[in-house]
Design brief:
There is one protein chain. It is built from 13 helices and 14 strands. By secondary structure, it is of the alpha/beta class. It has two domains: 178 residues, D-Maltodextrin-Binding Protein, domain 2; 143 residues, 3-Layer(aba) Sandwich (D-Maltodextrin-Binding Protein, domain 2). One of its GO terms (cellular component) is outer membrane-bounded periplasmic space.
């Protein structure tokens, strides 16, 4: 952590965190969590995030090594859970300080809505000020890294020469006479996944063929997955051949571990979404949440985010390659969160993906 010696209060707060308070720094792990640092520390940073513990662990361990006297408690939750718990906590105890000190989610539209509805607090620092405009909205929600949304296929079940490179080619493959993807394709369950809903609504906004593609997915008995990890498990086991709309970072991690998978970056357009962070208005230790955010946005933090989690650093996303469509933070993300618009979209999605009389995948 970079110390500001011109600010005595900030210096004292930083030294209090950096001072080791107790021995015993062994990591404590669970199915959906990780705890690092001394159990009796008076400085406890609570992080709730949609990032997989397995993928994000290296980043957390590096931050902990820089702050050995701090207790870090990390819990992995779905994007919908992160949003719902922030809203419900504020409704139940609007004056109490409780819950996480920072929330990180891949559903950048839900994070933006939390800010818009008053559930976040601002944070200004040299690190946040250095962000490009699309990665910082109102000094309350910040991109910490970007992740392209891709197609992924099992190389033992689909020849590379036949793998679709665009959505039009995917549509043609779904319509092929030999039906290579019938009962063997998956996409996000947009009703249960915040990032799945975001990706699907962005497709509708950008692609005139989105409706036709959804209809063909339904005719091919598409399965729906709750998360990228869920889809990757099915791909590795050969239960499906191709998955549409997955996070690149998780997929790259599986490929590095030897999974027989290949990534397709759609040539018509590839959505680049942000993992975004907010400091909740009710955070007990918003100062620690801000310190972790500044670490993530620092040069060292961005290097660790890229190396350990597979996300792309913000600096590498400012001038994306041809075909990549970065999605910026801001009010534009709230359009499809309007209740009437959301209900209409979900009705159309259900009718297309689960047509009446269709056999279960």
């Amino acid at each position: 952590m970079k110390l500001d010696f011109l600010n005595p209060l900030r210096l004292l707060a930083a030294l209090a965190v950096l001072l080791p308070l107790a021995a015993g720094h062994a990591a404590e792990t669970s199915a959906a969590g990780l705890a690092l640092g001394p159990a009796d520390s008076r400085n406890v940073l609570v992080v709730h995030a949609s990032n997989s513990v397995q993928v994000f662990r290296g980043v957390l361990e590096d931050f902990s090594s820089l702050n050995p006297g701090l207790r870090l408690e990390y819990t992995e939750l779905s994007t919908q859970e992160l949003y719902a718990e922030t809203v419900s906590r504020a409704a139940q105890a609007p004056a109490s300080r409780s819950g996480p000190d920072i929330v990180i989610s891949s559903a950048m539209d839900l994070q933006t809505k939390l800010v818009n509805d008053g559930y976040a607090q601002p944070h200004v620092s040299p690190e946040t000020r250095a962000l490009p405009a699309w990665a910082n909205w109102r000094d309350e929600v910040f991109s910490i890294g970007t992740d392209p949304i891709v197609m992924v296929y099992n190389t033992s079940k689909l020849a590379p020469a036949r793998a679709p490179r665009t959505r039009r080619e995917l549509l043609s493959l779904l319509q092929a006479p030999d039906q290579p993807l019938a009962g063997a394709i998956s996409t996000y369950d947009v009703e249960g996944s915040g990032i799945g809903y975001l990706a699907a609504t962005q497709d509708t906004r950008l692609d005139s063929m989105a409706g036709a593609l959804l209809a063909e997915l339904g005719r091919n008995r598409v399965a729906v997955h709750a998360s990228t990890e869920d889809a990757l498990d099915k791909l590795e086991r050969g239960e499906i051949t191709l998955a549409y709309n997955l996070l690149e970072s998780y997929t790259r991690h599986r490929i590095d571990q030897g999974a027989p998978l290949a990534i397709v970056y759609p040539q018509d357009y590839t959505l680049m979404l942000s993992r975004s962070a907010i400091i909740p208005r009710l955070a007990p230790r918003g100062d620690l949440g801000a310190m972790f955010l500044d670490y993530l946005l620092s040069a060292r933090g961005q290097e660790m985010v890229a190396r350990q989690s597979g996300m792309r650093p913000i600096s590498a996303s400012v001038n994306p390659e041809a075909g990549v469509r970065p999605v910026g933070l801001g009010v534009g993300l709230l359009v499809y969160l309007d209740p009437l618009k959301k209900r209409h979209f979900l009705d159309l999605w259900r009718a297309a993906v689960h047509p009446p009389g269709a056999a279960a995948p």
